[in-house]
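Fold it.
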Amino acid sequence: MTKKLLLASLIFLYSCTGYVPLFSEKTNFKFNSVELEGEERLNQIILRNIENLENKNSNDIKFIDLKINTQKIKKIHSKDSKGDPNKYKIEIKTVLEIEFENDINLKKNFFVSDIFDDFDSQFELNKYEKKTTKILTERLSEKIIVYLRTIE
């Protein structure tokens, strides 16, 4: 019985050797120029994440121009009976414009949001808002990476 179990596990492990993570492979494009508009700090996080996709060593490289416009909107989502804010909503919207060297233009909108409770301390609220904004920006950049991988 142990021989059969050992044989089955070896066959299973051997079949898993071709696994390659989705985000580890380089693409076949290089960024000619990148234009950033809107929230500078959020754009820098997005740009840092998508620059890892760039392939500078390939023979068949497509040159593309990127324009990234990001906006962060903080709204009061609900109020208590006194009229004080009870919950906040953060929305991050990004418009990604891509121009290929053969004059093909693509435009895609990306959107993420989150709702969080109010804090007693303004310091704690600002700290939590920054943390939430960073997490949302990372999620947004993952969406952009998946989109850029699909247009290859």
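The helical segments are 2-15, 40-50, 122-150.
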